[in-house]
Amino acid sequence: MPTDESITTTPESVADTAAAAAVAPVTTHHQQVLAKLATVDHVPGAAKPDAIITADHVTRRFGGMTAVDVDHLEVQEGAITALIGPNGAGKTTFFNLLTGFDRPNQGSWTFQGRSLSGKSAAAVAKIGVVRTFQLTKALSRLTVLQNMLLASTHNPGENLWLSWLPFTWQKHEKAATEKAMEILARFKLDTKASDFAGSLSGGQRKLLEMARALMTDPTVIMLDEPMAGVNPALVQSLLGHIQALRDEGMTVLFVEHDMHAVRHISDWVVVMAEGRIVAEGPPASVMRDQAVVDAYLGAHHDTDLGDDSLLDPKILARLEAEEEKR
Amino acid sequence: MDEFNRILEQTLAEFIAPTTAAYAMAAIGLNLHFGYTGLLNMGQAGFMLLGAYGFGIATMAGLPFPVAILVALAAGTVFALILGMPTLQLRGDYLAIVTISAAEIIRWIGRSTWLQEWTGGASGLQGRDYKDSFHATSPLGDGRMALGPLEYINTGSDSWWTRIFAWGLVALVLLFVWLITRSPWGRVLKGIREDEDAVRALGKNVYAYKMQALVLGGAIGALGGVLYALPLAIAPDAMSRTMTFFVWTVMLLGGAATVFGPVLGSMVFFAAYMLMRTGMRAVADNTGIGDVITTSNVEQIGGMLVGVTLMLLVIFRPQGILGNKRELAFNAH
């Protein structure tokens, strides 16, 4: 079993320890970010002091169903923003729209003041907004190192006209390899560099995908469910990596189902439901927002399903009784 | 014993036959499509036919030999651009459907009467109409030459010069393909083969890369068509679906995404194909099996066996002769 104290504690104390962890900044950068976010209203679409991404009136309809209908959203620069909400809330669709993987019916959004609307996925990534996927996309039949090198930007050897002249790109390749090995070492994947990515475990693939995204030196990194299907021990390490990205000055926007992870690391939480943004705020206050909790997270969102106490029929009966009364 | 030697000789001859080089060339192009980029081109014969037509018609119009080759390359390039522009944005399967039908369209246009003046209609173009400029490039002069059991005229359709030129061109193209596929450009192609969305998310223009691969592989296919036409004639019906499936078999036999796979595949395929047919004929003529497998059925049975081989290959050894088994184990995403 992983040594995560929250698993054996009661739901209430989980919330408290998580909140305590979140409000205990380690770096000055983090302190500054939190100070700035402290001035922001806890309302949907609130203006941020340094908005790096701003979205306006973004709508995406599939037939008669409106999947995304975001009036206004600002993402604070240098902070970890979590995008949460129930299944079908439109989080991933919104992600796809922002990163150019899908086209909206209407709406506009900007990155550092420049419009991103209508830009292709490749163009968005080139500007510095790089994403990962809910279903990990490791390039299986390339080695781990090749996966990393593929992400290297401005590689002259990726131009067909120069590709057959190795002397035009070997220097870049060498520098990229060094950088890739450094990043891989940080994610403890350096020993796997010459293995095929297809031979990695699910969790290692998640790490590789994140490492690969870092190769592009992104300004904003957007993670679609980074903890999905990852074992609890690796979750801790992933959380640490994400915090490290923030502390290096990157802006992190991530979609997540795991409330525990959200409370632990996010500086700001945006709640989506039925395509709209219904609440915003720091993790502790959003989680205590009774309406959000009841409507979108379920009354027992705090209950860890891996909790052994659930095996106790008495506790289970009590929870069911509470559910009946509601 | 004489017959046995003759069979071996014919088999050996297939290793260096110009047609073997032509298929190797077409398979190098297809390998760039499928092996490296994952593009399902089911109409490589269309590229070949178009290359052959471009070369033949340009030569008949009086253009010098090197220019006629460039016309063939241009024909393959334009065909690839036309096919790629609408389909490369779509899912991979669409390219397969479009290429197979486009190749058929080229063939039917070629054999129709309204372009007969240039294409020769259903009977195609005769060798003597377009081969003179090629034969004029030969430095070997007249006469015959024997190398071991193989003896050919120096210059002509079925000549040493045709073989030297064809294999020389294959070697040159192979060198070029080896250089570009081991580069970061080739790595992007492989990335696209694995998962194009992931590559897109890293800021690469996937469409442009797929188009480059389609055009390059198509132009190489057109060059294969030229090599195919040099020792023979240009007959549209000889360059149709069967040819496409032969090219696929050649590429998969040698090993997709390997540099020498297409060349080795072509050599092994045609040598085995020849051995099988001449062997069957000899057996049919000299033994009681002749009542079951008559000499006139050998071609048909040979064709059937190629199909069976392609199936067995895909099922039991999808990595081909040179492919990496380990690499293929991750085929499923």
From TrEMBL, chain A:
Keyword S-adenosyl-L-methionine: no
GO terms assigned for molecular function: ATP binding
InterPro entries on file: ABC_AA/LPS_Transport, ABC_transporter-like_ATP-bd, ABC_transporter-like_CS, BCA_ABC_TP_C, P-loop_NTPase
SUPFAM superfamilies: P-loop containing nucleoside triphosphate hydrolases
Entry keywords, A to Z: ATP-binding, Nucleotide-binding, Transport
Family annotation (CDD domains): ABC_Mj1267_LivG_branched
Protein name stated in the entry: ABC transporter ATP-binding protein
Pfam families: ABC_tran, BCA_ABC_TP_C
Residue span, ABC transporter domain: 53-299
From TrEMBL, chain B:
Pfam families: BPD_transp_2 (PF02653)
Transmembrane segments: 12-32, 52-82, 160-180, 213-234, 246-273
Membrane topology: Multi-pass membrane protein
Keywords: Cell membrane, Membrane, Transmembrane, Transmembrane helix
Localization per record: Cell membrane
Main localization category: membrane
Protein name: Branched-chain amino acid ABC transporter permease
Naturally occurring in which organism (per UniProt): Isoptericola luteus
Lineage, opening ranks: Bacteria, Bacillati, Actinomycetota, Actinomycetes, Micrococcales
